[in-house]
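Side project, low priority. Logging it here so it doesn't get lost.
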Amino acid sequence: MYDPSQAPYLTNHGKLVDIEAPDLQMFPDFASARPTIQDTLEPGEIVLVPAGWFHHFNSVSDCISLTWNFVHNSRLREFVSYLLNAPGENELKQLSYAYSEAK
């Protein structure tokens, strides 16, 4: 997980880097990104991703995972704006979006 301060390395004009296959022309500073938290969950553990944090997860074994995403009314306008800006296929696949408190 990357805290919101890592946004300059993970985003570019509203686009979000694909962590597994970064486009280094689009995200030239990606190599400077530093995860704030790296962990391996044990069976039965859960993780809460705080609003505004960037995250990427991989399964290292067979598993069942459940994701609950929601958009709070206070951020609805930003979320709709993001969707209207035609996010890339990898962004839609990840079902994630980034925003900054600086907006």
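Brief comment: Helices lie at 7-10, 76-84, 89-94.
Revisit when time allows.
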